[in-house]
Amino acid sequence: METVKINENINLHYIPMTKLKTTSIGIYIGTNLKKEEVSLSALLPYVLMKATKKAENASEMAKYLQNLYGAKLYTGVSKRGDNRFINFEGEVISDRYAPGGEKLLKGLIDLMLSVVFEPIAENGAFKADIIEREKKNSINRIKGIINDKTRYADKKCIEEMFKGEEYSVSEYGYIDDIEKITPKSLFEYYKKMITESAINIFLCGELNIAEVEKEVRAAVSDMSFKKAELAENKIIKNDKECREIKEQTELTQGKLSIGFRTNVCADSPEIWALIVANNIYGGGMGAKLFNNVREKLSLAYYVSTSIDRSKGFMLLHAGIAFDKFDEAKKEIFVQLNEMKNGNITDDEMSNAKSEIVNALNSCYDDQKQLQSYYMGNIISGTDVSLEEYKENIKKVTKQEVIDVINKLETDTIYFLEK
Fold first, then answer.
1. Are the CB atoms for 31 and 40 separated by under 8 Å?
2. How confident is the model at residue 288 (pLDDT cuts 50, 70, 90)?
């Protein structure tokens, strides 16, 4: 990956790839999570997409993209570590495959830079009709999470687990705060945010990075920036007893989420053993939880685990019958203790490593995955290539897996029941 520093806030990253006929672009605007700002940042990207100097309304936006042979452009928000991101991701046919020799990449980059840096505003405010429409859409997105009980249970578990920390803040904002946003207050926030955030621009495909650099520099040449860096991810050691929380609501299937503190940082040498341990326990196709809790004992409709390296935690997700809570919970910890006691087979080690390596290999066929991988390096403050990642996984020993799984501490058990 080649990186070009545009200014103190903006970095341009180029990942060469010639095997696909498309080029992907990602613009990730990041700053630290703050509850007082997160509702503004959750609404903002959808407003920016609706009125820009290159496309003044949704109809013009659709026509612009269609003229680029159906190029795609999406937006959204995300939370990674103690930072929130406004994301713009686009994809277009690579120039050398353009039927008429058109500069398709330049067309998409110009549009994306216009969306980010040239929004339409009137008298120091965004258009009122756009704001009201997108406020309703943002509120509906929040309600959609509440109605998706699996996501809701995970969200509530994380909120309880990280209560008092920035990471407990929802990247989608809060309904009461969104309702208070005005066209002027959002535009004032935009002006501050765009010049005080860390902006990483990724391009993956076949292109001339010098030409893109020229476009980006021109887009920001008249702007003044205040130096910004992504927040350092804080991993706070658990100093409290495990909490068990039950909530009642209308649903057809119990939703169980369990949060574990891993006590392992993203840049720790132990991280590779933790990744393998997660695969064996619940993250892989042949995981202990799947084979025993679901298949053998039929105590769960689904069960799996995932880890967040930036924040040092593991999250277990399970769908269970309401009357199986105690049995399922017991078996979940039985399987965890099996690993802590060293009951890990050579086949489990081998299969886990192979599955992880195969997943990494698939990144070479997916431009967005590659961008996400290297963005993850930036967020976690690491610099590990895919090949180094694979080699580190292959070197993990069974004893290292046992040692790292013994560092796991149960923090929060959250059960959504009727």
1. no
2. very high
* Cα 43 to Cα 49, 61, 130, 144, 190, distances in angstroms: 11, 19, 11, 15, 11
What's the start-to-end Cα distance of the chain, in Å? 50
Whether pLDDT at 417 is above 90: yes
Q: Which helix (H) or strand (E) holds 262?
A: none
| CB-CB neighbours of 338 under 10 Å | 16
C-alpha span between 273 and 398 (Å, rounded): 8
d(CA 344, CA 354): 16
Both tokens of residue 26? 């990602």
- Per-residue pLDDT, averaged over 42-70, amounts to 97
> What is the amino acid identity at position 127?
K
Q: Which residues pair with 248 in a beta bridge?
A: 417
pTM, rounded to two decimals: 0.94
pLDDT tens digits along 386-411: 999 999 999 999 999 999 999 999 99
Work out whether strand 10-16 and strand 254-261 pair parallel, antiparallel, or are unpaired: unpaired
Query: Which strands make up the sheet holding 302-308, listed edge to edge?
Result: 243-248, 409-417, 254-261, 313-320, 302-308
Show contacts of 327-334: CB within 8 Å, 24+ apart: 327/297, 327/299, 328/256, 328/293, 328/299, 328/300, 328/303, 329/256, 329/413, 331/292, 331/293, 331/297, 331/299, 332/258, 332/289, 332/293, 332/303, 333/410, 334/292
Query: What are the distances in angstroms from CA 311 to CA 210, 291, 333?
Result: 36, 28, 22
Task: Give the C-alpha separation, 316 to 259, whole Å.
Answer: 6
Structure tokens of 92? Answer: 């277009």
Residue from 287, 283, 289, 276 nearest 305 by CA? 283
Give the separation between CA 250 and CA 267, rounded to whole angstroms. Answer: 42
**181, 131 in Cβ contact below 8 A?**
yes
Q: CA–CA separation, 195 vs 8, rounded Å?
A: 10
